[in-house]
Amino acid sequence: MCTTKTYGVTSARKKHTCTWCWEWIEVGEPYEWYFCFESMRKVKMHPECMIAMHKWDGPDADLGELPVSGTYRRGKWGED
């Protein structure tokens, strides 16, 4: 996965969909984003979903590709 560094936004100016859980990131809520060169798009997530993704893709993980968008609940992965 080839991405840029992660950027934090303290207050969303418009509604976005979280790539991890597919719940809304509402106006005024914080979110994090990075640019994915493979899909050529911005990936936006709740801060807790970004943490879950990093746990999923941690140094001990050998899980292959990222799961399909919307697979996991907000801030959770696997059996969490």
Write the layout of secondary structure elements.
Layout: E1 7-9, E2 16-17, E3 24-25, E4 31-36, E5 41-45, H1 47-56
Describe the structure.
By secondary structure, the chain is α+β, with helices and mostly antiparallel strands. It is 12% helix and 22% strand. It has a domain at 7-56. It has one helix spanning 47-56; strands at 7-9, 16-17, 24-25, 31-36, 41-45. The strands form two sheets. Strands 1-4-5 form a three-stranded antiparallel β-sheet. A two-stranded antiparallel sheet has the order 2-3. The chain is globular and about 30 Å long.
Give a quick summary of the entry.
The chain has 80 residues and is an alpha+beta fold. The chain has one helix at residues 47-56, and strands at residues 7-9, 16-17, 24-25, 31-36, 41-45.
Overall mean pLDDT stands at 81
Radius of gyration, in angstroms, nearest whole number? 12 Å
Helix content range: 10-25%
Q: Give the number of helices.
A: 1
Strand and helix order = EEEEEH
Largest sheet: 3 strands, antiparallel
Strand order of the largest sheet: 1-4-5
- Coarse structural class: alpha+beta
The total beta strand count reads 5
Give the low-pLDDT segments.
none
Distance between the termini: 24 Å
Characteristic terms for this protein:
single chain; 80 residues; alpha+beta; 1 helix; 12% helix; globular
